[in-house]
Amino acid sequence: MRLHERTREEAAERLTARYGNDPSRWTGCAGGLAHEALAARLDHPVYPTARGRSGLDDDHVRAYAPEFHPRFPLRWVAVPEEAVTVPGGVASLPARWPSPAELGLPELSGTHLVLPVHPLTAGESAASLTEALRAVAPHGRAVIAPRPYLEVVPTLSMRTVALADEPSLHLKLPLVTATLGLRNRRTIKPGTLVDGAAGQRLLETVISREPRFRETILHADETVYAHAGHELLAVLCRRYPAGLDASVVVPLAALLSEAPGGRPLIDHLADRFHGGDPVALLDAVLTLLFDWQTTLFGYGIALESHQQNISLVLDRTPDGRTRLRLLFKDNDGPRIDFRRLRDALGADAPDPAAFDDPRVPADDDRAVTDVFTTITLHLCAGAYAFGLAREGRAPLNTLLTLVRDRLTEAVERLGTRPGEPGAVLRAHVLRAPELPVKAMVTAGTLLSKERSGAADINKHYTTGPNYLRTVER
After folding, report:
1. Cβ of 449: how many Cβ atoms within 10 Å?
2. Of 248, 246, 239, 236, which is closest to residue 281 (Cα–Cα)?
3. pLDDT at 56
């Protein structure tokens, strides 16, 4: 945090020199990376030490963290082809995927496939990487390539990087570094890649049955990946949709961040797209967000789509009207009530076995409402009510009333008879005396999983007051 304070003006000058003085005109996927740099200097609305990067010093942060918007070349490893899983085949990998020869290993051409590695994993954590290579291919058959290749820019998640000259292509890479607690290492379990692709296919099935979302809900493609059966030897090749070059792409996590000049980013966006009214912008976001997420709840689905995983896509239609779309990524950690899903999709419902993580299937509505509440309500709606109130844009009571009213409208579309999805959300979210709250400090830092009983750091809960009911009183 002291480093951020010392470098505030330096970072702002770097972004404005590259993208211009008005962040509401930082467009396309490249502009989105600049917005992510702003978000990286903002505290998480719930977790108190989210800006901490365990094990990294100031030089590491400057060189690799998104808040400094650096560029750096990727490292690579060469692994025997038979040890690597690529579901779509090698031809499905991005066109610029290098050969061993391009990385200084011509003797391995034809027998090995290369996988990208974050420089921190190949450098500071080289011992762990070497151990991983030995585990998947003994006798020195898997090696670290001597040459770096492809310049990249870090995204808000840090372990995910975008190609500097092709920012619509993101590579999610394992990091040994821990965030959100020492127990939350940023490696990639191969099963999460399977789950992300399965989650995307499920969402595409839902949208095919809900035509009103075909033009307003966008998804990054996460079906292309490769791994060697080890959490340090895996990569997700995330491709953003085409046609975003003229749009402003802003992660929700950046809305309350400080833009160059000192004003919150949401004010700049409101000036351009909503007549200078940030509350009107929030209203538009909540209307679409709750409509989509409650629709998913009706299918028995709750996404782990927090602020970092949703971006606003803002532009204007040919007749000059503001157009808002939501862009989603990271579909690997949902909670799904397959009983409700089968009732809604029939034969199109996937088998629970399509997901690798046994925690995805939920036994009842409660597990799904917990994720809906802690992610969609708290992080993607309530946080902005409290945040805009702190910025003096409107009274807190007014903003919380807006959240409650838009959620109520969305819930009522799902039916109110006992057992219907709308009735469940009304009882467990709108009318509940208390709401679940993530206990991430307990599960991620203070206690072992054996003591806390947490099966998942991101889905371990305590409870707190229902601020939606407080508004009513």
Report:
1. 14
2. 248
3. 86
Q: E strand or H helix at 200, and its extent?
A: helix 190-209
Residues, the chain, total? 473
pLDDT tens figures, 223-240: 999 999 999 999 999 999
State the first-to-last Cα distance of the chain, in angstroms, to the nearest integer: 38
DSSP string, 358-375: TTSB-SSHHHHHHHIIII
d(CA 446, CA 293) in angstroms, rounded, equals 32
| Spatial distance between the Cα atoms of 447 and 248, rounded to a whole number of angstroms | 41
Question: Which of 26-30, 80-84, 179-183 is the least confident region?
Answer: 179-183
- Count the alpha carbons within 13 Å of 312 in the hemisphere toward its beta carbon: 29
The count of other CB atoms within 10 Å of the CB of residue 41 is: 21
Helices (H), 245-309: 265-273, 278-298
Contact 194, 224 (CB under 8 A): no
Is the pLDDT assigned to residue 10 strictly greater than 90? yes
Over residues 249-282, the pLDDT tens digits come to 999 999 999 999 999 999 999 999 999 999 999 9
Contact 1, 51 (CB under 8 A): yes
Residue 139, number of CB atoms within 10 A of its CB: 6
Residue 378 has pLDDT above 60, yes or no: yes
Three-class secondary structure assignment of 73-109: EEEEEEEEHHHCECCCCHHHCCCCCCCCHHHCCHHHC
Q: What is the pLDDT of residue 184?
A: 57
Spatial CB neighbours of 95, under 8 Å, sequence gap ≥ 6: none
Res 473: pLDDT = 55
H or E segment and range at residue 6: helix 2-6
DSSP 181-192: STT-B----HHH
C-alpha 262 chain-centroid distance: 26
How many angstroms separate the most distant Cα atoms in the chain? 73
Non-local (6+) Cβ contacts of 208 within 8 A are none
Instruction: Check pLDDT > 90 for residue 452.
Output: no
**Strand segments (E) across 188-340:** 217-219, 221-230, 233-239, 248-251, 301-302, 310-316, 322-328, 335-336
Cα four-point dihedral sign 239, 245, 247, 248: positive
- Report pLDDT digits (tens) over 13-62: 999 999 999 999 999 999 999 999 999 999 988 878 788 887 789 999 99
Q: Mean per-residue pLDDT for 83-112?
A: 96
- Cβ neighbour number for residue 80 with a 10 Å cutoff: 15
Give the C-alpha separation, 79 to 137, whole Å.
Answer: 7
